[in-house]
Amino acid sequence: MTALGKLLRTTAFQLTLVYLIVFALFAAFLVGYFALNTRRLINEQIVGTVDVEVTALTGQYNQAGIRRLVVIVDVRSRRPGSSLYLVTTPTGEGLAGNVGSLEPGILESEGWVETAYRRLEEPESAEHTALVRVTRLPGGIRLLVGRDLDERERMFHIVAVAGRWSVALVVVLGVLGGIFVSRRVLNRVEAMTATAQTIMAGDLSGRLSITGSGDEFDRLALNLNGMLERIDSLMRGLKEVTDNVAHDLKTPLTRLRNRCEAALRMAKTDADYRRVLEETIEESDGLIRTFDALLMIARAESGEVRDGMAEFDVADVARDVGELYEPLAEDKGLSLEIQANEHATVKGNRELVSQALANLVDNAIKYAAPDADAANGERAGIVVKTSTDKDQIMLSVSDHGPGIPAGDRSRVVERFVRLEQSRSEPGSGLGLSLVSAVARLHGGELKLEDNAPGLTARIALPRVPSQRAA
Amino acid sequence: MRLLIIEDDRDAAEYLVKAFREVGHVADHAADGEEGLALALDGGYDVLIVDRMLPKLDGLMVIGRLRTKGNTTPALILSALGAVDDRVRGLRAGGDDYLPKPYSFSELLARVEVLARRHTGRGEETQYRVADLELDRLSHRVVRGSEEIALQPREFRLLEYLMKHAGQVVTRTMLLENVWDYHFDPQTNIIDVHISRLRSKIDKGFAQPLLHTVRGAGYMIRDGAR
């Protein structure tokens, strides 16, 4: 694309062009209006002057008769720059005045008329136009008084020329201004494009420059920078996950491989091989579970599942999950109580919220020792509870287990983090990460609190205005 | 039972064909979507096992075309995508069951057998009976011998599902999906606890156990005397 072509295509230039046309039309209209008004003004002046003269001459004629009129008209006719005068007999014979010739029939009717004429003293000159008033005096004498219109035409001409010039000036200045403005805009856009290209080429740390003027380009640059920041942090997160996945999948894979190798080297009987194969399958199932959990977290964090969201009652979820785990809790000598009486509607993915709650209940059952509260003579209880406040719906699981030390609470939510005392229990270290990811996907959060003793894990979700509320 | 496996991974397909033959089924193999569609249309199969991503014709499209042509052979979709919405998409396209990769053969076998049976009869009966155990779906009553057994609603649904597929292996995942409508893996083997509760209600005190554990696969209700 040529530089000119590029310029012509800029929005700024096209806008300038549109404004230019509007302004030029406006200017032309103004000048035209001014010209017409000038013309009207001149006409009015002529009419005023002529009327005064006609009144004066008619007065003289009425007082002193035709002779006096002829004398006065003669005198006035000879003054330089005089008006036009003509006095005729009823038959049209000229008595006095400075008009040589007229369009025929002008004198027949009284009143105002525009006519071509020649002055008496310059019969050979081109015809001029004049605005004249014809009056019939008593006795049939006709009096014509008028003024040349050259002045009016000259004025009109001057205004027209001025108009043309000003329109031309507007156009020229407008085009120059348009070019100037669009070049400025173009330069900044070009600069942004150039930066964007270097970023695309792989340098994600690059940022668009901001002039500090706070204009729309600055705002655009700020927003684009924000977007880059988010992409950058997502990429870093992704890299971290990949590293973690690599580490946490490689460890069990190595174990798997070692075991097979050892079996090849040392196994003697079919039973030995069978045992190793069974262990291998078990281990690979564990790997698959870890992998599934990671994928699930990744999907929840990317917001990919947001499409399938619908409204549902978390009280139902609490009851269903509670009922699923109740026999397991009982087997471990724990009571599991469900307090979910109010309807609490949220919009989200029922399956994911169920899974999140299941993870919390599973944890509670896993870590709450059955004799934790034996000293009080009570059974150690797990409480699954829904509660609502002004704008949140809480889904909480409380136990009387060992709890999580305050300093570790933010850490346990991270992927693959397992506390020292829980390493003996089976688990992937992904359970709470998934809960947290699900909560964030729904615009909520996971809070871990002290249940003194034990732990209260609370999923807080934003509330949907419920139609079912009593 | 005759099976058609539409799968482009040759190793996986060979393994499946062999495994199904070992348990006494006939299995054919198609390596891409078009071949699979042609074979399936020729008919004669009890169940189709369709990989989600296939060369030439996508797995979901194979099923879609079969269905538009009026072919109702049950189809099980195998997918490496394995997420909630992908399963929904697969079932909406006309699939009858969905199994994410990687799967265990026992899981696949159990599901295929259930699909084949569903297709050849034994539909929605109002009463199920296994030996002297009787379940009435309308009155929600369960009777063993002359004794009425009281079950929780969920226990009833669990037994109902097992009895509907009496004589067939039902896996833990199948129970979780069909009785609880959960499609995630609840880490701890929670289903075992529910089964043992149910077992204590229907088998305890009776000479002949009906609810059996199939090692490495799942559970089965059957008349042990036969």
Description:
The complex is a heterodimer of chains A (470) and B (226). With 470 residues, chain A is an alpha+beta fold. Helices cover 55% and strands 17% of the residues of chain A. Chain A has helices at residues 3-9, 11-78, 150-200, 216-266, 270-302, 314-331, 350-367, 431-441; strands at residues 84-88, 94-97, 99-102, 111-119, 128-136, 142-148, 310-313, 335-339, 345-348, 381-388, 392-398, 445-450, 455-462. In chain A, the strands form three sheets. In chain A, strands 2-1-6-5-4-3 form a six-stranded antiparallel sheet. In chain A, helix 2 (11-78) packs antiparallel against helix 3 (150-200). Chain A is rod-shaped, with a radius of gyration of 51 Å. Chain A starts with a helix and ends in an 8-residue tail after the last strand. Chain B has helices at residues 10-22, 33-42, 59-68, 84-92, 105-120, 153-164, 172-179, 190-202; strands at residues 2-6, 26-30, 47-51, 75-79, 97-100, 127-130, 133-136, 141-144, 147-149, 170-171, 211-214, 218-221. In chain B, strands 2-1-3-4-5 form a five-stranded parallel sheet, with helices on both faces. In chain B, strands 6-7-8-9 form a four-stranded antiparallel sheet, covered by helices on one side. In chain B, strand 8 and strand 9 form a beta hairpin. In chain B, helix 2 (33-42) packs parallel to helix 3 (59-68). The mean pLDDT of chain B is 86. At the A-B interface, helix 5, helix 6 and helix 7 of A face helix 4 and helix 8 of B.
Low-confidence stretches of chain A: none
Task: Give the fraction of residues assigned to helices of chain B.
Answer: 40-55%
Strand order of the largest sheet of chain A: 2-1-6-5-4-3
What is the element string of chain B, with H for helices and E for strands? EHEHEHEHEHEEEEHEHHEE
Query: What letter string, H or E per element, gives the SSE order of chain A?
Result: HHEEEEEEHHHEHEEHEEHEE
The chain-level mean pLDDT of chain A equals 81
β-strand amount of chain B:
15-25%
The tally of helices of chain A reads: 8
What is the strand content of chain A? Answer: 15-25%
Helix content range of chain A:
40-55%
The coarse silhouette of chain A is: rod-shaped
For the largest beta sheet of chain B, what order do the strands appear in spatially? 2-1-3-4-5
Number of helices of chain B: 8
